[in-house]
């Protein structure tokens, strides 16, 4: 994406302004609690104490976040943080690493950088908390909530909460597209790999349902072939993006939509929503003299993360990407507000 893709800046900023005005939140939160599952797009610090290269509790990460670096893989708030604000929460949902006491009644963030649906995804970077383990951690929190409230009150609370899963990117970036570490690309065609992933994801979602979840959103995977890491390390074959990577992800998204439809048909007492990833595609033209940069805002190391203590770009609101993989806060704001529009029917 660093190869000349541009967005219409005035239109983009106008969208941000409209969403900011339209979805300003006042008063009580729309749900009593909010639970977050996923990867580095929504991780708020769960990897900080793990033996892994996939942790970012150092500057310049957090340069625009209150209090500085926290382990969030961006310059400011994640898309999950902004969604929390839109839902009406005054405080950020705590990470499982630090969640304690009665604050767990408002929700917990279990997400882990480099984690995937598959257990092994991202493990070449070190330890991560894969989705199965995140679900185990959630069961621990559910047990604590039951201890606090009793079975009936806990069940009544949990069915009103909002559950969001943002995962799957690492099953591609740190698995399928890394044949030097994983053999999945030799075992599966892209279509069959997507089928395998969703087949594994389905019972994981049912585990969440069986723990009391009744309002759930499942996010699709964005155009991985257009992120700075992909366009810098793979042959684009004259295209603006690595089209083969985007095609592979589209198989997953299509199957995930079908899974959401199936879950809604089979489970009448629950509501599932598929959230489209924001596609900052190449079909936009720039106004004369203006463009949004789709290269990373900071100098990246061999893992695609910001080099510690290096100064990032100054005008961060003009960059869609923070490092080689992750969006800037301005991108997260647009993504969260577009997702919130879709979610209103279950809130």
TrEMBL record:
It is found in: Secreted. CDD domains: SGNH_plant_lipase_like. GO terms for molecular function: hydrolase activity, acting on ester bonds. The keyword Iron-sulfur does not apply. One of its GO terms (cellular component) is extracellular region. Keywords: Hydrolase, Lipid degradation, Lipid metabolism, Secreted, Signal. Residues 1-27 form the signal peptide. This is Uncharacterized protein. It holds the Pfam family Lipase_GDSL. The keyword Methyltransferase does not apply. Belongs to the 'GDSL' lipolytic enzyme family. InterPro entries: GDSL, GDSL_esterase/lipase, SGNH_hydro_sf, SGNH_plant_lipase-like. One of its GO terms (biological process) is lipid catabolic process. Its main location: secreted. SUPFAM superfamilies: SGNH hydrolase (SSF52266).
């Amino acid at each position: 994406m660093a190869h000349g893709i541009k967005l219409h800046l005035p239109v983009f900023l106008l969208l941000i302004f409209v969403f900011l005005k339209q979805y300003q939140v006042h008063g009580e939160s729309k749900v009593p609690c909010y639970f977050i599952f996923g990867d580095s797009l929504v991780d708020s610090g769960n990897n900080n104490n793990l033996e892994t290269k996939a942790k970012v509790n150092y500057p310049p990460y957090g340069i625009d976040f209150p209090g500085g670096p926290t382990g969030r893989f961006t310059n400011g708030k994640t898309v999950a943080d902004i969604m929390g604000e839109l839902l009406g929460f005054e405080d950020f949902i705590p990470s499982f690493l630090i969640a304690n006491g009665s604050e767990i009644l408002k929700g917990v963030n279990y997400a882990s950088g480099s984690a995937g649906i598959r257990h092994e995804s991202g493990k070449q970077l070190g330890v991560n908390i894969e989705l199965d383990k995140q679900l185990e951690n959630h069961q621990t929190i559910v047990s604590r909530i039951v201890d606090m409230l009793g079975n009936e009150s806990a069940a009544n609370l949990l069915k009103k909460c909002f559950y969001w899963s943002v995962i799957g990117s690492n099953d591609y970036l740190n698995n399928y597209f890394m044949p030097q570490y994983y053999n999945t690309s030799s075992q599966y065609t892209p279509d069959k790999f997507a089928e395998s992933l969703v087949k594994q994801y389905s019972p994981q979602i049912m585990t969440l349902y069986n723990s009391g979840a009744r309002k759930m959103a499942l996010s699709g995977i964005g155009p991985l072939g257009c992120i700075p890491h992909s366009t810098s390390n793979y042959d684009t074959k004259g295209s603006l993006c690595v089209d083969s990577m985007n095609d592979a992800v589209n198989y997953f998204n299509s199957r995930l939509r079908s899974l959401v439809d199936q879950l809604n048909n089979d489970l009448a007492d629950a509501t599932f929503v598929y959230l489209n990833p924001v596609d900052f595609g190449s079909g936009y033209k720039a106004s004369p003299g203006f463009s949004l940069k789709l290269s990373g805002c900071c100098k990246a190391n061999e893992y695609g993360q910001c080099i510690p203590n290096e100064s990032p770009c100054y005008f961060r609101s003009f960059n869609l990407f923070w490092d080689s993989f992750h969006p800037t806060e301005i991108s997260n704001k647009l993504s969260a507000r577009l997702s919130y529009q879709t979610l209103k029917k279950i809130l």
